[in-house]
Amino acid sequence: MTEINDTATYTVENRIAWVKFNRPEKRNCMSPRLNQRMGEILAELEYRDDVGVLVLTGEGQAWSAGMDLKEYFRETEAKGLGAVRQAQRESYGWWRRLRWYQKPTIAMVNGWCFGGGYGPLYSCDLAIAADEAQFALSEINWGILPGGGATKVVSDLIPMRDAMYHALTGELIDGKKAAAWRLVNESVPLDQLKARVVELAEILLKKNPVALKATKDAVRRVKEMTYDNAEDYLVRAQEAANSYDDDGRKEGIKQFIDDKTYKPGLGAYDLAKQG
User: Fold this and answer.
1) What is the largest CA-CA distance in the chain?
2) Considering only CA atoms, which of 114, 160, 105 is closest in space to residue 135?
3) What are phi and psi of 101, to 5 degrees?
4) Distance separating alpha carbons of residues 136 and 163, to the nearest angstrom
5) What average pLDDT does range 117-136 have in this prediction?
6) What DSSP state is assigned to residue 265?
7) What is the number of alpha carbons within 13 Å of residue 65 lying toward its C-beta?
8) d(CA 197, CA 107)
9) Which residues contact 269 (CB under 8 A, 6 or more apart)?
10) Strand partners of residue 64
11) pLDDT tens for residues 22-31?
12) Nearest partner of 40 among 70, 10, 4, judged by Cα
């Protein structure tokens, strides 16, 4: 378990792991220590049986204001290229692990999300923001391009004209605009944010975990494939999933065809009945 003064903390409640950036006095900007701690937390939680969904959020009034300009940039750069590369490996490393995480993940964007914060935002499978949250690619305001994958994030998620405006102006947008641009799935009033995320997490907890992992990986992988390559990949992915959990697929079919207890288009089969 994490200590309260850690740069990142977590609790597990009802199979939901609540992971928090914990530098509220710094708007949860990401320092080398925070990046190291996030790598540790993800490793601690990934294969725990009591964790079915991971939610990433921020303590206080921010989600993450991006990279810590003092600790991540100035102080690291003063130590030389080796230190810079090490800091990059640690930050990009946990974002990469989060993209391919064993459990489904939700970004609960409760406040500021700037610059480098787009890395973990994109790495989460789903993202729900508060209407009051503020988003910006702030790099242009202090003289660099949106690095650390941020340019790739907006070019993947946002239409070109909006992505260009976002990157070139550095202007703030709120949660509603972020949802309209598809940077997040949706936004809700801040006082409803946690309830909406819990509701979404509970939907995911009812699904077959092997199918969830296979599906989230497939969505990311096929994006850059031709249709024929994707078709072939998905056949193989389903066969691989069957090798891990063929009983789940068969139980789902049984409950629909034989038991007539659910309809796949309207709900999920009962995992509790699976042996």
Assistant:
1) 67
2) 114
3) -65, 150
4) 11
5) 97
6) T
7) 17
8) 9
9) 208, 251, 252, 255, 256, 261, 262
10) 113
11) 999 999 998 9
12) 10
